[in-house]
Amino acid sequence: MKRTLIALTATLSLTAISTPLFAASATAPLGVSASVASNCTITTAPVSFGLYDTITGTAVTGTGTVNVACTMGASGLSIDLSTGANGPSATGTTRAMNSGASILNYELFTDSGHGTVWSTGYATGDAPSKASRAFTVYGLISANQDVPAGSYSDTVIAKINY
Known about the structure:
By secondary structure, the protein is mainly beta. The protein has one helix spanning about 1-20, and strands at about 40-45, 60-70, 80, 95-100, 100-110, 120-125, 135-140, 160. The strands form two sheets. It has a five-stranded antiparallel sheet with strand order 1-2-7-5-4, with no helix packed on it. Strands 6-3-8 form a three-stranded antiparallel sheet, with no helix packed on it.
């Protein structure tokens, strides 16, 4: 019995020592904040026209894509397409591809009916989410161009304004 009483007294003493006795407490708010910046990214998939036959003189169409991802809710978004590296050499269009000194005129449009030339300020609407949205670029090489055989190309710069 003496042993049990001593063990119980020792246990109670250790418990009293290890358990702090608080007389009071205080609280304070901890602020937490973050900022989300408006941001956009832009990528492209090329417009590929394929073969242009000068003998038949038939117009050729092609499509490409401009992909845009912006911060959700970003507004006032628009996409610009430059006139390309050979734009100043174009005749009757805004844009031209070259093969050496030879020029093959073409144009890029916002619609499949080739009614609106895609230049600056093509409004995309507000970003509904951060998900990438694809905008089709409609290309047209006009009929009856008389150019030598070769591989023609141009580089157009796509820019997202936000």
